[in-house]
Amino acid sequence: MAHIETDVNEYTTAVGDTGQLVDVREPVEVATGMLPGAVNIPMSKFVERVNELDPERPVVLVCRSGNRSGQVAEYLSGHGFTKVVNLTGGMMRYSG
Fold first, then answer.
1. Which residues, in sequence order, are CB contacts of 68 under 8 Å at separation 6+?
2. What is the residue-averaged pLDDT of the chain?
3. Which tens digit of pLDDT belongs to each residue from 26-67?
4. How far is residue 47's CA from residue 49's CA, in Å, rounded to a whole number?
5. CA neighbours within 13 Å on the CB side: how many for 85?
């Protein structure tokens, strides 16, 4: 099943009450700030840390531009996660 694409500025709607917001940027990148409520699981460590996510709950992904989070969204969609959202535009487009 494919993932959903949603504008980064709609992240609160995408996360809802039960979603898991994950920033896949590297630690040096998130040092400049993250979306409120996000946890950092860098793309480079994602495969080894994917078990930290609940596949029964929505997973909302963000990165700098939406490219890496899109790749991680494809990975999750191919590994049993059915509610996956990529935030397009990433932190570059976030107007928070």
1. 24, 25, 43
2. 96
3. 999 999 999 999 999 999 999 999 999 999 999 999 999 999
4. 6
5. 21
Q: Which tokens is 72 given?
A: 């991680």
Decide if domain 4-93 falls under CATH 3.40.250.10. yes
Half-sphere exposure of residue 5: CA atoms within 13 angstroms, side-chain side: 10
Q: Which residue has the tokens 């993250």?
A: 34
Residue 24: CB atoms within 10 A of its CB come to 26
Instruction: Determine the residue type at 39.
Output: V
Give the burial class of 80: count Cβ atoms within 10 A of its Cβ; 0-12 exposed, 13-18 middle, 19 or more buried.
exposed
Residues with catalytic function: 63
CB 6 within 8 A of CB 14: yes
